Amino acid sequence: MMLKTILWFGAATALIISAPLSAHEAAKPDDAQIAHVAYTAGQIDVDAGKQALARSHNPAVRSFAEAMVRDHAAVNDKALALVARLGVTPQANATSSALSAQAAQKHAELAGLDGAAFDRAYVANEVAYHRTVNDALRDLLIPSATNGELKALLETGLTLFSEHQAHAEHLAASLK
Fold first, then answer.
1. What dihedral angle (degrees, nearest 10) is formed by the CA atoms of 140, 95, 35, 61?
2. How confident is the model at residue 9 (pLDDT cuts 50, 70, 90)?
3. Counted domains in the chain
4. Staple partner for 65: which of 30, 49, 83, 86, CB 3.0–4.6 Å?
5. Domain presence at residue 119
6. Could you write out the DSSP letters of every residue in 78-106?
7. Is residue 116 part of a domain?
8. pLDDT band for position 61 (50/70/90)?
9. With the C-alpha atoms ordered 105, 165, 80, 48, is the resulting torsion angle positive or negative?
10. Dihedral angle over CA of 125, 152, 88, 134, nearest 10
11. Rounded Cα gap, residues 153 and 82, in angstroms
12. What pLDDT score does 20 carry?
């Protein structure tokens, strides 16, 4: 059941991230839309980390959640400073809205779990979420960004979030 949920979430998130482009394959997101998607994705992981900190008693899971909150909040702070300096207003879009809706659903699902079941589901979700976000950064957001500073911030985020994915995968293996 949990594997089915993880696979569904990963596939759904991948579809959500790519859906706006499949309708208009020639249209790529602009920098304002990219900034909103990136910020939204980061905030989703901050919120998920806070949920894990409130629910988990496992020291390894709590340590991971603390790192997610710290790292994603720091990247989001840098993103906000960058868009303010550039005078760009992040633009809400179908992708960021769909990500938020999916995250709310996942948050509610995780809220119904306790103990080891919560820990496994939270970490499995982190693996799937980081994989999907990293793929979107690498394949869509970074190539579509036109501003060099935004592109550099996204590349830095991809490096950090790839480390998060590896950490989540290692943690998931230890929780089986």
1. -90
2. very low
3. 1
4. 49
5. yes
6. HHHHHHHHHT------HHHHHHHHHHHHH
7. yes
8. very high
9. positive
10. -20
11. 9
12. 45
Instruction: Tell whether 14 is covered by a domain.
Output: no
Range of the domain at 166: 2-6+30-174
Percent of the chain with pLDDT over 70: 85
Task: Supply 119's token pair.
Answer: 């820990």
23 assigned to some structural domain: no
Q: Which residues of 103-130 are buried (b: 16+ CB within 10 A; e: fewer)?
A: beebeeebeeeeeeebbbbbbbbbbbbb
- Both structure tokens of 25: 């394959």
- Which of 121, 105, 110, 138 has the alpha carbon at shortest distance from 175? 121
Cα end-to-end distance, the chain, whole Å? 14
- Under 8 Å between Cβ of 39 and 79: yes
pTM of the model: 0.84
The pLDDT confidence band at residue 62, using thresholds 50, 70 and 90, is very high
Place of tokens 């020639």: 26
**Assigned token pair, 105:** 């659903």
Q: Which two tokens stand for residue 2?
A: 């949990």
What are the structure tokens assigned to 123, written together? 């970490």
